[in-house]
Write a structure and sequence with these properties.
The chain has two domains: 8-148, HUPs (Rossmann fold, 3-Layer(aba) Sandwich), CATH 3.40.50.620; 161-281, 3-Layer(aba) Sandwich (Rossmann fold). The protein starts with 7 loop residues before the first strand and ends with a strand. It contains eight helices and eleven strands. 40% of the residues are buried. Helix 3 runs parallel beside helix 4 and helix 7 runs parallel beside helix 8 (263-271). By secondary structure, the chain is an alpha/beta fold. The longest helix is centred in the first third of the chain and has 30 residues, at 53-82. Helix 2 (53-82) links the parallel strand 2 and strand 3. The protein has helices at 20-33, 53-82, 98-109, 131-139, 170-186, 207-214, 230-241, 263-271; strands at residues 8-12, 36-42, 89-94, 113-118, 144-148, 161-166, 189-196, 221-227, 245-255, 258-261, 275-281.
Length: 284
């Protein structure tokens, strides 16, 4: 089915500066698509097994009071990050483990995009982007935007350049449809990249025609074709073009009794120099 611009964005925050980039991306997409934003803060408060009934009741009362205070703090944090002129943001507090709360809230509220921050690390630690973000990316049924916080990022950038890597899969077509719609909505330049790996059996011979069919006429676009390892070339082109947002498709593959995302997706999300919006496809 064709991919549309988001109409309800769920933005989990942990009240730290790592949450700020995702909030800015959510706000930019909200202005473009007139989408709702729900900011979610989740923390698990569970009574120890040795608590008496009265102690459990007292803890429950404290949790209710804490939730009210947390909602006020969350609203203040969002306002501080986004500043004046920001779109309206709804707030929600959940008493649950963060990843569980994010996935459940996305389903319950009908969100069609999750925008969340990841750790802005360097060196060896960049091999991990945060257990919560990785689990949400692996289990979400809706697109996930991951934005990495960098200490030297400065003020948030506008989304002016979008990169969309494609292959000949259905989910790549969906990701290109979304990237093209976002580019048209945001007035951004769109670069479409096809990486031909040496062991690939096929390629998109009509890439230019395919892109023209998906991208609106007013959308500034460029097609690139590279040879090499997919994730490496995607990351390299993202840096070369100075893209602000990378939109890519990802297929879940069956592995025993579960599904896994491919290494290209995980490596790209972990190491891309910009935010990555992953459009997921699950096996039937």
């Amino acid at each position: 089915m064709p991919e549309d611009v988001p109409r309800h964005i769920l933005c989990p925050v942990d009240l730290s500066e790592r949450s700020a980039p995702a909030l800015h991306y959510a706000a930019a997409l909200s202005r473009c698509a007139d989408a709702r934003i729900t900011a979610l803060y989740a923390e698990s408060f569970a009574p120890p097994p040795y608590f008496t009934e009265s102690q459990v009741e007292a803890l429950a009362a404290q949790i209710r009071d804490s939730a009210a205070a947390a909602e006020k703090t969350l609203a203040q944090f969002v306002a501080q990050v986004l500043g004046s002129g920001a779109p309206k943001v709804e707030t929600k507090i959940a008493n649950a483990l963060p990843a569980d709360a994010i996935l459940r809230t996305a389903q319950e509220t009908g969100a069609d995009l999750i925008a969340m921050g990841t750790h802005g690390r360097s060196g060896f630690n960049r091999w991990m982007m945060g257990s919560v973000a990785e689990r949400v990316l692996r289990e979400s049924r809706i697109p996930v935007l991951t934005a990495r916080h960098a200490a030297d990022a400065g003020s948030p950038r506008a989304i002016r350049r979008i990169l969309c890597p494609v292959n000949d899969s259905d989910v790549a077509r969906r990701s290109l449809q979304l990237a093209a719609k976002l580019a048209g909505c945001l007035g951004a330049a769109l670069t479409v990249l096809h990486v031909q790996e040496q062991d690939a059996r096929g390629h998109i011979a009509d890439l230019c025609q395919w892109v023209r069919e998906q991208a609106p006429p007013q959308c500034e676009k460029m097609e690139l074709s590279r040879q090499g390892e997919a994730a490496q070339e995607i990351i390299r082109v993202a840096a070369e073009t100075g893209c602000d947002l990378l939109v890519m498709g990802a297929r879940h593959r069956l592995f025993h009794d579960t599904t896994v995302l491919g290494t290209t997706t995980i490596r790209t999300v972990r190491h891309a120099p910009c935010a990555v919006l992953t459009v997921v496809e699950w096996p039937e």
